[in-house]
Write a structure and sequence with these properties.
Order of helices and strands: EHEHEHEHEHEHEHEEEH
Shape: globular
Helix content: 25-40%
Largest sheet: 8 strands, parallel, barrel
Structural class: alpha/beta
Number of strands: 10
Strand content: 15-25%
Number of helices: 8
Distance between the termini: 7 Å
């Protein structure tokens, strides 16, 4: 059955980029706070400014590498985004503390698909979050990679996760206008997330983003032999 995957455009750096993403049908805007590595980091002042200007119907998402629940809660209260994307592992109980302190704020937990162990991680995390996002980072590296790598991962594992967990799943990691259609057909995620694949010299590229959005729509409209009826 055809479906329309949600589109999340990440690494938004300005009000102009936010408007461009929304014009192309973005359902969510990713706003990147301090990270140990990777692209797209902007100041908290700029995150708050873009979050304030994000219209109803579009979700402003704060990407945070913080792991302490109280620090994450304080950061969201400063910046007032509509959702949190937790890009690193959190200690037991942290998600529940965040949920209790921030009712109405969606919690998206990133799972970095480095191998089959990602399936068990996703199943364990799903009950405590609103959505999962599958990415291609290396959180155990000497310098943590927590997103924006431009690398794809094993989509067969991502497909297994989408079929197994009871919450929406976004697919990220190395997606481009050229491969996102194949990714959607293979994985059938709730949504897709893109950063470097629609940028030229670090700037959001209107032509690439339009091509990406078209590819997402086309792939969603096409029937798939293993469609789960999304």
């Amino acid at each position: 059955m055809p479906y329309l995957p949600r589109l999340k455009v990440c690494c938004i750096s300005s009000l102009q980029e936010a408007r461009l993403a929304i014009e192309q049908g973005a359902h969510a805007l990713g706003l990147v706070s301090a990270m140990p590595s990777g692209p797209g980091v902007i100041s908290e002042e700029q995150i708050a400014r873009i979050a304030r200007a994000t219209p109803p119907g579009v979700t402003s998402v704060l990407l945070t590498s913080l792991q302490d629940a109280e620090a994450i809660i304080a950061q969201q209260r400063r910046l007032r985004t509509r959702a949190l994307q937790l890009v690193d592992r959190l200690p037991p109980g942290a998600h529940r503390r965040i949920r209790a302190a921030l009712p109405g704020i969606a919690i998206i937990q990133v799972v970095h698909v480095t191998g089959q162990e990602a399936i068990a991680q996703a199943l364990a995390l799903a009950p405590d979050v609103d959505a999962l996002l599958l990415d291609s980072g290396r959180p155990d590296g000497e310098v943590k990679e927590l997103g924006g790598t431009g690398r794809t991962h094993n989509w067969e594992i991502s497909r297994e996760i989408c079929a197994a967990v009871p919450v929406p799943v976004f697919l990220a990691g190395g997606l481009t206008p050229q491969n996102v259609g194949q990714a959607i057909q293979q994985v059938r995620p709730f949504g897709v997330d893109v950063c470097s694949g629609v940028r030229t010299e670090g700037r959001l590229d209107a032509g690439k983003l339009a091509a990406f959005a078209r590819a997402v729509r086309s792939a969603g409209e096409a029937p798939c032999p293993h469609d789960r009826g999304a």
